[in-house]
């Protein structure tokens, strides 16, 4: 599968009043939405635009026959939306990606350990530190700045095959296939960069992916985001925007996630399912009558096993890269 990247340009999404991006003038709008809401809306709109562009590019490369008939009749107004980290993929996809980058000496091992530790804190506490989010965003943007979008897509494909492919939850993959077999669109929705998210979607045979969009010009990343990281309300806005563009009826759609942070997205659709849920989402799902699917092996995973496994898994992954580096240096 050839590496695909976003079309050249300065990013997706329309300018919204009040948005603050590096190098852009601040527009005051005291009666309008907050800065964070504007960023989330812009991120969601940009993500939907990027997802449709990447999906169209992928479809254009597929061989077609004039008399081709779809194997499954299409259900044009229903779709399924899947979170990625700990829902479709075991662990955090960005950590797996960082491991692959560190192995290729794109990242320092200290950066990998730092990424892993912040992810562990989030999974154990169920809360994200604004400082951690900001620091992670700046590190990620500093990494991609000046690199080509095609390079990131190529690295994503290589690292998926090496690291991520074996970490797909079979149970969640089966749920996605159920929707595909019903002729419905199936989209990933994630804070992971859209180029990497699209790779995962294509490898799994899904429709496409909504992810964080980094601004690019002439096929090169500028080091700025379009809006913000696709998270929380941003995911909900991306799903809503895509539904409008694709003519979907959200009451007939389904959404799957492990995190309480995705409640805005889960609340948009007619069928919400908690997958491997954190404690807060499990409680909310119980109160709202949402279905819960837990594919983790330990019965008490949400309370004890998951934090322990995450600590060991994340740190061991970072240590594996460090040991490999030392072997290379001693060889």
UniProtKB/TrEMBL annotation:
<keyword id="KW-0472">Membrane</keyword>
<keyword id="KW-0812">Transmembrane</keyword>
<dbReference type="InterPro" id="IPR023214">
    <property type="entry name" value="HAD_sf"/>
</dbReference>
<protein>
    <submittedName>
        <fullName>HAD-IB family hydrolase</fullName>
    </submittedName>
</protein>
<dbReference type="InterPro" id="IPR036412">
    <property type="entry name" value="HAD-like_sf"/>
</dbReference>
<dbReference type="GO" id="GO:0016787">
    <property type="term" value="F:hydrolase activity"/>
</dbReference>
<keyword id="KW-0378">Hydrolase</keyword>
<feature type="transmembrane region" description="Helical">
    <location>
        <begin position="304"/>
        <end position="324"/>
    </location>
</feature>
<comment type="similarity">
    <text>Belongs to the HAD-like hydrolase superfamily. SerB family.</text>
</comment>
<dbReference type="InterPro" id="IPR050582">
    <property type="entry name" value="HAD-like_SerB"/>
</dbReference>
<dbReference type="Pfam" id="PF12710">
    <property type="entry name" value="HAD"/>
</dbReference>
<dbReference type="InterPro" id="IPR006385">
    <property type="entry name" value="HAD_hydro_SerB1"/>
</dbReference>
<keyword id="KW-1133">Transmembrane helix</keyword>
